[in-house]
Each structure stands twice: as structure tokens, then as C-alpha cells.
Amino acid sequence: MGQHGMDPSAPLTGKPSKKTQRKLRNEMRTQLISFVLMIFLTSMAFISIASDAIPTGFAMPFILLLAVIQVILQLYVFMHLNERGNGWPNAMIWTGVLVAIPTVASLMLLLGIVKW
Amino acid sequence: MSNAKAQSKSVLWDWLTTVDHKKIGIMYLVAGAFFFALGGLEAILMRIQLMFPEFSFVPAQTFNELLTMHGTTMIFLAAMPLLFGFMNYIVPLQIGARDVAFPFLNALGFWLFLFGGILLNVSWFVGGAPDAGWTAYVPLSSESPGTGVDYYVLGLQVSGAGTLIGGINFLVTIINMRAPGMSMMRMPLFTWSTFVASMLILFAFPALTIGLLLLMLERIFGATYFAVDFGGNVIIWQHLFWIFGHPEVYILILPAFGIFSEILSAFSKKRLFGYSAMVFATLIIGFLGFMVWAHHMFTVGMGPVANSIFAVATMAIAVPTGIKIFNWLLTLWGGRIQFTTANLFALAFIPSFTMGGVTGVMLATSAANYQFHDTYFVVAHFHYVIIGGVVLGLFAGAYYWWPRIFGYKLDETLGKWFFWLFLIGFHLTFFVQHFLGLIGMPRRVASYLGGQGLDTMNFISTIGAFLMGIAFIIFVVSIFTSMKNKVTDADPWGNGRTLEWTMPIPTPEYNFAQTPLVRDVDALWYEKYEGDGKMKAAEPLGDIHMPNGSILPFIMSLGLFISSFGFIYYHEGFLWLAILGLVINFGAMFVRSIKEDHGYHIPKEEVIKGGK
């Protein structure tokens, strides 16, 4: 490397600007709220299966729904997919989902006992 | 580890360790051409066997092996690598990049493909090649005796990993490495179709990987995914195979569409008609390609609703494809058409491919499909789209880009002989096969009885195959006899429109001394008319950072190659060999991870000298 450009792994020096500080504070709040929400959703999922009061017919789609919410939170909050400059990863992930859902859904129907 | 200069190396070592996209592209082209000749030879042997009724040129078992290896070789080891060769060489040049995003991975992808291809063909010498068809339907493949199908499974697994790596590399390259000013909607169509084909690779190949893994576990380790008496389901393989297999045919045809778009526009001296419609048609074909796989399985017994849905989805693909055909015709309309060999292939493609498309819509009619299924009608259809589309595209691309890649022009007279013999041979071989299929000749049979109306058409078909063989020999001869037609001009056709025609021939290893500034679609053409005919630079001249070569991709691939033998002969007690191969593979990965390699710089003075 040497004379060619900066060393990207060098530690940062100096204080962040006011704007950056505000941004970091906001992000911290979002992260904490999402963290609490994640724990809450996970316990909801656990309770709906562990408790006998909730029928299985309701619990199964319910925990699938919770799982979807958690995946989205995970991707967008904890893995920062919502930040600027992530347009392509977003596009590719959603294209994959768009292709996979009809494929898997119709595959399940086609492999079933019922002939459509 | 940053060297001031690359060390000088022997020629062999240079090619074994290269990470230069141009050299890797050339290696893809050479290896692909070898496998293309091999697959062609297998086809000729099959056609000789079918020349006369009850002929005994090759035994039935050998015929099954020939037909399996012909299909597998042509799809995985010839068509795709040849396209990858052009993509590797041309796409970085078309987007104004100095290399692909991951040069090391690019080399790894090539060596994995080559070792996978060699592995597959080793089977010929050790107890017989795979014999269950290129689709390897279970239980035929899971119960097939001998080691042939094991070679199929592991050979495709290794080369498939290489393809997946290559596809991801192209995606990242096209997204991240475009020159300033080249927005997505200014990319040449070949780059666009490479991009969409790479997306298809990314989403489709995992299904093949899983299918092959299940088949390997079933054959070698006694799993029962497909064994009905243990509660398995044989249909799962067909679904997995075609979820991969149908996008695969678009992975082949879309880059060919891109090649034709470049050539038709260059040799009619016109901008491509309906550029944005072409881009969206490519995207739509790519998406719909995932939604139609079950049309290969209409007779499996999926049920009338499922059959209808897949029939309609399949027919829908004819719409974006039709848009493309009309756009090509309108590109030609009023253009100053030059009948070079490259353009002849592109012009012949339009009617030939349309015929394949029409039989495709016929096959998509699920009720009629019960009549066509597994007859020569299907054979005629897919050869019309693959030869009439992909192979004509490969030859067109070869003639068009040959001066850029190899520094000389292929002889036009021999080229026209080659073109006409090949085109006539192709139609002679496959046109009659439509009718063979309609009167009931099943595909994949080693022989047939005389006096059933099949004799004459089979004879004609074989003559056509000979013509294609002779044509290909003329092409190979012309490669060697044309070497004196050296070109040095950056734009040897005189009507280049895109960035690959802006650097000197032979292409410098850093491609662009200065990254170009792109101001419109057809960047070079724009500068010819609105500027001074030269690309404007987007950066000052400076030292150029280059990656170091490495032997590690070769060693990693060799490790998997050795390991595959260990798995194939697992029951003969060769588990240690499988482990040894994996140790070599992971060892090379470990070395790659801990060894820092920052590449080297070509000093500015040398770049200035190279430009002169």
C-alpha cells in the first residue's frame, strides 16, 4: 500500500459532529426498542406453543407470522439494510424472495397427495 | 507484500496462476471449444448408429452413455463455458473496468469448471460413462449400476460450484465496477443479458446442488429420498432438476440474445431499436423462467389445474421473446446492413430461433404435449432453440470479437463456407426430426425397426449432422489459416459502438490506461458523432493497481477433484482419499485467508509507453 491512499483500518480520531451524535443517539434508541420487541415476540411465540390454552390451529400460523416480522426486523434494524447505499442488496434479497415464495408454495402443492 | 512489479514467469506458470479476466476468458473459450468438439463427436456417433434401421454401429449401452454425455457436455461443459469466455473477456471492457470484481474467485470458477468437466469425462475410461440421460431421472439414475452416474453427480457438483462463483462475480462486477457515466440503462445489451443470466445462475443453481447432493447421498450412502418402498418420492428429483433446468436454458439463451443485439446493431450501423424494451424483455424472461419448470413434467400426472397454469405461464414467455424478435427486425429496418460472417450468423438466428419458439408454444399446450412428449419432436424443438439460438450466437460472437480477443480477423471466405454448410446441415438434421417425432419415433432409442416410415428421414438427419461436422472442421482450419490477418487498429470493424473497441489490440493487461467517461448508450458511437472519436478520460493518468497471480485456485480445484474420486470409490475403501482432497482444498483456502496480498502497481511511465 504505502503511498497509495489511506490505511482503512487506522483508528478514528477526534470527536463526532453534532449531527453524527444525534444520529447515533437515534440509532441507539431504535436498536434498543427493536431488541426489546424481539424478546417480546420470541416469548409470545414460545408461550403460544407452550400454553395449552391456545389451539394449535391458531398457534402455527401465528408463530410463522411472528417469524416473518422478526426476519424483517433482523435484516433492517440489526443488519442495517435500511441505510442508504443498500439498494442493490435490497433488490437482490427481495428478488430472491419473490422467486422463492411461488416456487416453494407450488412445489408443496404439486408434491402433495391431492392432484390439482 | 506489495511488489513494485509482477515477476516474469514461464508461459505455463503464467496461465496456471493468472487472475486476468482476459486470460481466464481465453481459457474458458479453449476448454469450451474442446468439450464442444467432444460433444459434437458423440452426436455424430449417435447419428451414425441411427443412420439405418437396426444398425449395429455402437451397442445400446454405449448409445445410452453417448446420449447422456452429449447432453451433459454440450450444456454444462460447452455452451455455458463458451458464453462465460465471452462474458469474462468482454463484459469488463464494455463497462470500462480494469478487471472483474474478484479476480481470484474468477480463476477459481474456471478451474472448478475444468476439473469438473475432466472428472465427468474420466468416467469413459473407468467402467463406463453415465447412462441415465442428462436429466438423470430417478430411479433410473439412482439404480444405475456401475460408477457412471457417480461421476455425473460429482463432476456436475464441482463444475456447478465454479459456475455459481462465476455468476456471483459477474453480478458484483456489473453492479460495482461500471465507469463514471455508465448508468444501468446505458449498459450494452450483452452486459445486461450477462447480468440477468448471472441472477438466474444465483437463484437456479442451488436447486441443482441440492438435487445432486440428494442423489449422491442416495447412491453412495444409502439414503432413501427417492426410494418409494421406503416412503420416498421419485418426483422430487424431477422438480428439483427442472427448477434448476428451466432457468438453465435461459442462462444459455439470454447471453446469446445479448450477442445478437450487439452484432445486429453494429452491422446495420444503427442504434438498437427499443433499447429499454429489450432490457425489460430480458428481465421479464428471466423472471418467468422460474415460473414454468413443470412444463417439462406435463405427463407426470400433476393434475389438470397445475398443467393449465404452467401451460399459460410458458406461453406468456413468447410475449417478451416476440418483443425482442421485432426489435431486432426493426434494428435492421433501414439500416446499412453489412453481410459479414458474424452478421450472417445473427441474421440466420432470427428465423431459426423463431421456428424453435413456435414448436415451444406447441409443446406448451399441455393437452397436445401428451402426444409430443418423449418423441423426436421434443429433440427437434430444443435443438432448434439451442443450436438456432445459442450456438449461432456463439459463432456470431466468435467472428465479431475474434480480432479483439486474438488480435487477428478470421477469414471471411472460409467463414461464409462454414456458415452456409453449418446452417444447411443444421436444418437438414433437425427439421425432419419434427416429423419423425410426429409419426411416433421416441427419443433416446438406440435403434428402430425398418419399414415404418422412419428410414429416409433418419438418413437425411445423419447427412445433416455430417455437414455440421464438416463445417466445424472448416472453422477450426480457418482459425489456423487466418493467423496472418493481423489487426492493430482499436476498432477493426470500423463501426464499433461500445467500449470494448476503444483500447489498442492486443488489449493491455490493465484494459484502460484511464477509466473512460461514458456520455450515452453506445458510448464510442456517441464520441464518434458528438466528440472527437476518442473516449474522454474520467481520471488522470497514474499508477495502476493490479492483482497478483496465484496458484491457489488451481490447488483448491485439484483438491475437490481428488476428493470426488474418494467419494466415488467410497465402498472400495477410499474414504481417506476423499478426506485428503478436502484437506488440500481447505488448506489452500486457509493459506489464502492468512496470506496478505495487496497486489502490485504498474508505474505511470509504463502505462504511457504501453499506449504508444
UniProtKB/TrEMBL annotation, chain A:
The keyword Transmembrane helix applies. Keywords: Cell membrane, Membrane, Transmembrane, Transmembrane helix. It is found in: Cell membrane. It is a multi-pass membrane protein. Its main location: membrane. It comes from the Bacteria. Residues 1-24 are annotated as: Disordered. InterPro entries: Cyt_c_oxidase_su4_prok (IPR005171). This is Cytochrome c oxidase subunit 4.
TrEMBL record, chain B:
The keyword Disulfide bond does not apply. Pathway: Energy metabolism; oxidative phosphorylation. PANTHER family: CYTOCHROME C OXIDASE SUBUNIT 1. The keyword Phosphoprotein does not apply. It comes from the Bacteria. The chain crosses the membrane at residues 26-48, 68-91, 103-126, 151-177, 189-216, 236-260, 272-293, 305-330, 342-364, 376-402, 414-439, 459-480, 551-569, 575-594. CDD domains: Ubiquinol_Oxidase_I (cd01662). It catalyses: 4 Fe(II)-[cytochrome c] + O2 + 8 H(+)(in) = 4 Fe(III)-[cytochrome c] + 2 H2O + 4 H(+)(out). It is an enzyme of class 7 (translocase). Its main location: membrane. It is a multi-pass membrane protein. Its EC number is 7.1.1.9. It comes from Evansella vedderi. It is found in: Cell membrane; Membrane. Belongs to the heme-copper respiratory oxidase family. Residues 7-519 form the Cytochrome oxidase subunit I profile domain. Cytochrome c oxidase is the component of the respiratory chain that catalyzes the reduction of oxygen to water. Subunits 1-3 form the functional core of the enzyme complex. CO I is the catalytic subunit of the enzyme. Electrons originating in cytochrome c are transferred via the copper A center of subunit 2 and heme A of subunit 1 to the bimetallic center formed by heme A3 and copper B. This is Cytochrome c oxidase subunit 1. Keywords: Cell membrane, Copper, Electron transport, Heme, Iron, Membrane, Metal-binding, Respiratory chain, Translocase, Transmembrane, Transmembrane helix, Transport.
